[in-house]
Amino acid sequence: PLEEGIELRIAAIYASHGRWARSLPYYDAWIAKHQKDDQLWTGYNGRCWARAMLGRELDQALEDCNTAMRRGPRNSQVLDSRGLVHLRRGELEAAIADYDAALRLQPKQAWSLYGRGLAKKKLGHDVDGEADIAAALALDPTLTRRAERIGLIPPAKKPDEKPKLDAAEPGPRA
Asked: Which pLDDT score, from 0 to 100, does residue 159 have?
């Protein structure tokens, strides 16, 4: 027989390696079997985060985060996850509110700083947004690359890369 609760550990391993889609069935299985578990919120939060990282099933992701908030302690992880869901959904004020709450509990949570910075920039608060992003990158210099990889921000242009002409623009004349 499988070790009790192994699905949650497998899901967490997949998630820690950025294999978000692979983690989802394991979160589903663990949640289904552990409805009375004191740690149920961790499964809901993990599934919320995986969906948010994938940028899909965002309504279900928000429901998972809200369930995690109701079933567990108020903590920065769930607030950070829900902030990312709101950011992905374009609910920028709600994202900032969740990131603010997460950062009150865990002031050096890099993803929360980064997400809040992105939300602020999208609202036109460029100086504050850049300050948050700089603080986040000081804590975790890999965040921009990770945000690009999940489609949260567009990929940076390589320094030696020539700008691509828009298909509607005429090319250089010979």
From this structure: 65
pLDDT in tens, 111-128: 999 999 999 999 999 999
What does each C-alpha distance from 115 to 5, 27, 72, 137, 144 come to in angstroms? 31, 24, 23, 11, 11
* Neighbour tally for 132: CB within 10 Å: 23
85/170 Cα distance (integer angstroms): 40
Q: How confident is the model at residue 168 (pLDDT cuts 50, 70, 90)?
A: very low
pLDDT over 80 (residue 62): yes
Burial of 5 (0-12, 13-18, 19+ CB in 10 A): middle
